[in-house]
Amino acid sequence: MEIIKTKPTGSYYSDYENWSKQVSGTHIQTYSPKNVAELLNIVNWAWQNNYQVRVSGQQHNWSPLTIANGNNNSQIILIDMSKYLKNVTITKTGDSGTFTAQTGILMEALFTALEKKTLGYYAHPAPGDLTLGGVLAINGHGTCVPAKNEKLTEKGTWGTISNNIISLSAIVWDSTAECYTTKTFQRNDPEIAPFLACVGRTIIYEVTMQVPRNKRLRCQSFVDIPATELFAPKAQTGLRTFSHYLDQCGKAEAIWFPFTDKPWMKIWTESPSYPTVSKPVHSPYNYPFSDRVPVEISDLIKLINNGYPEKTPAMGNLQMSLVKTGLGATISGDLWGWSKDVLLYVKPDTLRVTANGYAIITKRDNIQPVLHDFMTKYEEMVEKYQKLNSWPMNGPIEVRVTGLDKPEDSIVSGAVAPALSAVRPVDEHPEWDVAIWLDILSMPDTPDANKFYNEMEQWIFAHFSGDYALTRVEWSKGWGYTDDAAWENNDVLNNIVPGSYKDWNESMAILNKYDPHQTFTSPFMRKLLKQR
Ligand SMILES: Cc1cc2nc3c(=O)[nH]c(=O)nc-3n(C[C@H](O)[C@H](O)[C@H](O)COP(=O)(O)OP(=O)(O)OC[C@H]3O[C@@H](n4cnc5c(N)ncnc54)[C@H](O)[C@@H]3O)c2cc1C
User: For the whole prediction, is pTM greater than 0.85?
Assistant: First the structure.
């Protein structure tokens, strides 16, 4: 192609800051392209002038996919697609439908548009202010497996948001024209596989996705189930175990604050007609008490950070008592509404914490033992650290369960699985049908937190392995720990993570083929996303 002599106009400088504020950079050249032609012009100029280009969504990711903390960003161009590239066109076919969206659209805006056509998902990430591109890059998920005897709704999936993709358009290198251009991949093209959860290694410009009919869900909260019962070693008649709730309604989440004995358990049940005891809701974010950080919490945080770490149990208990009081005061313990209104519940003003994250792939019968093993290990470790006056974990554990990204859920015949999805099915174990998503949250820079996360991670990889389960990392979260930092453990980056994916090298080869100049990379991606 011809050399683009003048730098594309319209750039401005912006700052980058990730969710936990642990990755930041200032004064980075940024563009907000208005259309694909502008985007291509920027990308081709950047490649010719040795710049790297990365889409910046809402910067809510934890892992340093976009920039490296403290690096010189003078040769980086950020693309903000959320300003102009957010069109969506919806096509309804019978009860279900499809839509084509530009990936800068925010999830809440997308769900709102879908809801107007009676379409909607039953499991998706909890914040509404994420871009569709950011969510697809890391195979964003909610919590959803089939309840007993439940059949998949037309155009639904038990997997992640990425498993709904029918086709996508990416910015790719064209070796004939010798420039970057757009290419549309269909879901049954084997080369689409690594693009379906691309970990930011390309630019996805537009996607077409399947979407089921919208449903009304009832969301009930429970705060009276002892952790020992919820996470009992096995499902048992009469016990309120996590599996019991999954069998009952398929959608459940536990949030367990440290040093408390009863988690905040939420379940979502399909309820087409209004259960008169529930509170009807017509918009999302119905737990205001968990969005804002009350002064009691910020005072305790200050105390903990100023030489009183032993106040950590008080913090766990205070957080849980605020949940209990809040559910009562806002009458939000039993809600009923369209899917997005009960599934979106995290706002940007919630406490800025850090989190590790893993998906444990196994068979459904193992859900209870996996949870029990994990919680037992967690409690043992907390006690061991406590004896040394060390209090690394001051946020809750979160548990969710989904199905896998099975290509059979796709309406496209011959569909391929998302190659880099954390919940890509495991060919050697066709009986494995669920992913148990485990996160432990803690405040950024809590002393000994990385040490704790590292020890826990080593145990998770070793324990959930072999014929019992496979552990994959959750791309957006913390993993690859050393005692001092996340994403720095070379064994995890070079061996364990690539080894958890069949065809890792083939996926990297496809991504490299379509970006041979490594234009869409960051320092972390260059370390992680390479052939072994
Ligand atoms: C409080 C909180 C709650 C969360 N809850 C959930 C949850 O319930 N479930 C869940 O799955 N995740 C959850 N996440 C994680 C979140 O889904 C991811 O971090 C997501 O990537 C953030 O989207 P973003 O728009 O902020 O993207 P960014 O953080 O800006 O970007 C993330 C990555 O996506 C890439 N990217 C963005 N757009 C594109 C594009 N168009 N093409 C190619 N690559 C692109 C970026 O380059 C980067 O590599 C949560 C995060 C936070 C902070």
Answer: yes
